Task: structure prediction
Amino acid sequence: MNSNIELAIIIPTRNRPDCIQIGIASILKQMAGLPIRVIISDNSDLSDAGLNMTYIKSLNNDRLTYIRPPEVLSMVNHWNWAATHVLEKTLSTHFTILTDRGFYRSGALRDLVEKIREYDNDVISFSGDTILDFYSPIVIGEADWTGCVDVVRCKDLLNHASHCRFHRALPFECLPYSRKDSVFGQAVRNGVSG
Result:
């Protein structure tokens, strides 16, 4: 078990200032005493970027970092840019991406950090709840949760993917947690994406 970890939660966003506030709040409510850093990567138009930056600054939390790509990017390129930034410019040992429509249920981050410490060298996958903001009013789409851990080795994931086979531990829209120096982290760093 590795107790010396820091989890970077990357929140890439584009023009959803109301949604990211929900996701950030769900993290802030739980992160006291946990080794977590949040990086908001803002790919928004200038008006929404201003709202996001003002909100993040108002929180006055040194574990929240706001970054912005030099130009507006496609979603895939933005996610890769944000992940590469975290891999290259932070001291975090593990990383994940929380969509700008995502959030964490109460207690989930403490459980997650325990699983990361226990399964330090493995990818941990999950499917999460999401904010459905396509129509008004905005509602929450809840996913079933088992709380079970299915250990899958990074090298096995890449082997399966190279043969177009997808392991049962990778649900649709899987967002994994992984060590920065794992094979999975290296694939992200080298531009390999879903």
